[in-house]
Design brief:
The chain has eight helices and eleven strands. It has helices at about 5-15, 45-50, 85-95, 105-120, 140-150, 185-190, 205-215, 220-240, and strands spanning about 20-25, 35-40, 55-60, 100, 125-130, 130-140, 160, 165-175, 195-200, 215-220, 245-250. The longest helix has 20 residues, at about 220-240. The protein is globular, with a radius of gyration of 19 Å. The structure holds fe (ii) ion (FE2) (2 copies).
């Protein structure tokens, strides 16, 4: 199967690719030998594809750094690629690997609902585009956060809010939508009068906004919050393609607590 035909297959299955999705590196005429699915095309996930002789990497996030959403003017990148981008592209070229980005398609069909299933949040009260709001039987913040940590099998989550405060109406801010660059999206979720947010990754702008509103928060981690859905996507893809090798390549957290 060529990458061109694979994109047709994906669009027939999940819907049209949007403006930020599609081939980020390589050639649509290449014949696919194997597919590595990952959250981001880092040195480690590219190496994992090379080891398995996979020549297509499907990423959820941008390949480049600075990424497409960052202002290129501030770094004067109009003429040359970023330093990290150049390193990743050289690695891909050396190993004849193509990179296809599937972002909102995998969010919509896999990432959001796989995570809420794992966290047993039940049927959403609001399910509109990427917006998710849930209502659960009231539980104290401390127990709610500890249960999330347990269900995901992670060593820590970041928590905001009074430990004994009851959690009832939850806004889902999976992945990076809790970052203040997505403040418009966060504002729409606040309009549903949530008392708690469960987020992938937040910054301190968002945290200060939540504390002014008296809203509690559990932050899981950007990659950690999207990984279960991407693994689910890779498993489903493997079933659908039958004879094509498909592997999900994860990465450990890049930082540690001291
Ligand atoms: Fe996402
Ligand atoms: Fe993301």
């Amino acid at each position: 199967m060529t990458i061109r035909n694979f994109i047709k297959f994906i669009e027939g299955w999940l819907g049209k690719l949007n403006f930020e999705e599609g081939l980020l590196h390589g050639n649509t005429a290449s014949r696919i030998k194997g597919i590595t699915v990952c959250w981001m095309a880092t040195e480690k996930t590219i190496a994992s594809a090379v080891k398995r002789r996979h020549n297509l990497v499907i990423v959820h996030e941008d390949l480049l750094f600075p990424p497409g959403y960052a202002s290129s003017d501030s770094a004067n990148l109009t003429e040359k690629p970023g330093i990290v981008s150049a390193k990743r592209i050289a690695l891909l070229q050396e190993n004849s690997i193509s990179v296809l980005r599937l972002h909102s398609l995998t969010d919509r069909h896999f990432v959001l609902d796989t995570l809420s299933d794992i966290l047993s949040l039940g049927e959403p009260l609001v399910k509109k585009g990427l917006q998710r709001v849930y209502e659960i039987k009231p539980v104290a913040m401390e127990k709610f956060a500890a249960d999330i940590r347990k269900k995901l099998g992670v060593s820590h989550v970041r928590v905001m809010g009074n430990p004994s405060k009851k959690v009832k109406r939850i806004g889902g801010l999976w992945g990076g939508v809790g970052l203040s660059i997505n403040a418009g999206f966060i504002n729409n979720i606040l309009a549903y009068k949530i008392d708690t947010a469960v987020a992938g990754e937040v910054d301190e702008y968002t945290m200060r906004a939540f504390s002014d509103m008296g809203i509690g928060m559990v932050e899981i981690g950007h990659e950690k919050s999207e990984e279960p859905g991407l693994m689910h996507f890779a498993d489903t893809l493997k079933e659908k393609l039958k004879n094509m090798p498909v592997h999900y390549s994860g990465d450990k957290e890049s930082w540690r607590l001291l």
